[in-house]
Amino acid sequence: MSDAGQASDLSSIEKAAVLLMSLGEKDAAQILKHMGPKEVQKIGSMMANMSNVQRHQVEKVLDDFLVLVGDQTGLGLGADGYIRNMLRQALGDEKAGSLIDRILLGGNTTGLDTLKWMESRAVADVIRYEHPQIQAIVISYLESDQAAGILANFDERVRLDILLRVAALETVQPAALMELNNILERQFSGNQATQSTTIGGVRTAANIMNFIDSSVEAELMESIRDADEDLANTIQDLMFVFDNLIDVDDRGIQVILREVESETLILALKGADPDMQEKVFKNMSSRAADMLKDDLEAQGPVRVSEVEVAQKEILAVARRLADSGEIVLGGGGEQMV
Q: Which residues form the Flagellar motor switch protein FliG C-terminal domain (predicted)?
């Protein structure tokens, strides 16, 4: 965003960026150190792209924030996660330096956690010549979308081997994690694990497959089927695709829609099943649904790849909301109890 619009038109990310830019470095650091890599990346990039923010817009954002937290006893921020590369990218080395120092002071980021802040290609380069089992543990530890991006940097044979190992993982013993952290600490710093950790598994493999580019996904799935047909069927059943959102209850759909930009929703629905489109329409106000229908009709031809990117973005929102307990995913991607 090169020019900030009216305060009421700002997205949640834009409001967060304005709020943090209004604080001093020390206070901003205390907030950012509780965020994960994805949140920091989005906010940092937005901060870098903002300009011409009006005084009344800042005042409106601050007023909205005070109203939002006025009846709360705390912000409910999560535990770990420390800002690294994205602040440098957003603010530059000089401006970000002191902020990063404050956030990382006394931190306990492990070698594995450090990988979360790196580009997928860089992580692939770090683990490229390690044992395949080490590669599988790293892939399993990271978020599924980042893991999918890392796999894209390997050839087909290596991708298949790693994903099969991910699906076979259940727990990782201390010795294995110690070995992995020792490898990573040659470039980073970290602590050694002291307890066995549940990691990987068929569901992790399915989640990674959800984020792999569709042109690679079909080929990889066929290779998995050739190696183990039962495993391929299980992964296929667990994969959660956009049209599976039709099994989410109405309240859940409404929660998802509040988190999705209209442009993304239009693209995603362009390639959706008519029943899925109707599911969305009925969970909007009549006026909003009519506007969305008009936008869909006015939308010209779009690339299938653009539709897939938009649908995966919405799926990522749905998984995040499900992980936080705000919604329950139905269908193949999540079991109902």
A: 222-329
The number of C-alpha atoms within 13 Å of 79 and in the hemisphere containing its C-beta is 3
Give the CATH fold of the 7-104 domain. Annexin V; domain 1 (1.10.220)
Can you say how many angstroms the Cα of residue 50 is from the centroid of all Cα atoms in its chain?
Answer: 22
Using CA atoms in the order 308, 139, 153, 227, what is the torsion angle rounded to 10 degrees? -80
> Across the strands, what pairs with 269?
none
Band of pLDDT at residue 163, cut at 50, 70 and 90 = very high
Domain ranges of the chain: 7-104, 111-238, 242-333
Q: Give per-residue pLDDT as tens, 218-254.
A: 788 888 989 888 888 888 777 777 888 888 889 999 9
| Angle between helix 229-238 and helix 156-168 axes, rounded to 10 deg | 80
Token readout for 252 is 């859940």
Q: What tokens appear for 251 in the block?
A: 């309240």
> CB-based contacts of 220: which residues, under 8 Å, 6+ apart?
156, 159, 160, 163, 209, 212
Question: What is the architecture of the domain spanning 242-333?
Answer: Orthogonal Bundle (1.10)
User: Residues near 272 by Cβ (< 8 Å), separated by ≥ 6?
Assistant: 242, 243, 311
Contact 223, 281 (CB under 8 A): no
Helix axes 229-238, 202-211, angle to 10 degrees: 70
Q: Which of 153, 111, 148 is nearest to 128 (CA)?
A: 153
Distance CA 148, CA 212 (A): 5
The DSSP code for 106 is T
Question: What does pTM read for this prediction?
Answer: 0.46
Q: How far apart are CA 113 and CA 232, in angstroms?
A: 30
Mean pLDDT of 319-334: 69
Same fold, 111-238 and 242-333: yes
